[in-house]
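Input record (one chain):
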Amino acid sequence: MILGLIQTSPLFGDKEGNRRQIEALAGDARADLWVMPELALTGYEFKNREELRELAEEIPQGESCQWLTAFCRERNCHAVMGLAEGEGERVFNSAVLAGPKGILGKYRKLHLFDAETERFDLGDTPYPVFDIGTARVGLMICWDWRYPEAARTLTLRGAQIIAHPSNLVTPYCQPAMVTRALENRVFTATANRVGTETRAGREVRFTGESVIVSPDGATLAKLSRDRTECITVEIEPAQADDKRTGLYNDLIRERRPEFYVNTAERSPT
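The corresponding structure, as predicted from the sequence alone:
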């Protein structure tokens, strides 16, 4: 299958313009699965929770989900995109997986970063994995990368590809995704954005360098630090089903969870 990344520089609040930017970047390129950034159509630096509520949409009936479905239908593909989700008084930093027939599912970010904790509600959905026919795709969002349990949970649930919409502001995630891919023997696809946003009394600069990593830890594609662009690579998702590392070791079969410290306990001193 063909896996693609779209690296954008959204204008805050301009959903229509940001949709056009994605369409222009994709152009005539073909992918079976596109991965787009976190909060791809709204921008990131909300001034307050009230502004966030105004820009948030319901899933799947919101205009952004309808547009993403049309994007997939016109290109006969699937796509993962981050967006602000509203549900009553609650607002979530979410990601959706769409296909030609509609929204297959969503994920609400479990680990909020920095001022996100003042704007969004904590996610309440388990890490999901969806079978799109050509691959099994798991979802996580940006700061989730700092928690190895996220990628491991998706792996244990059968993900061959981890789609990772992001708005990264530190330089650490992209190289760390090599480790996430290696320790789980999965493909990872981190779609970041570029540019800056000066709002809410501060400037936020995004690091670009969207990246696809193979189960062997090889960087299959990496974009620039400061340009909007897209890239596609051909992969064989079934490679992620083989968890062996040499003749003797299997990363999943040889786990020893009975000896791992429970998150609610301390190891003995």
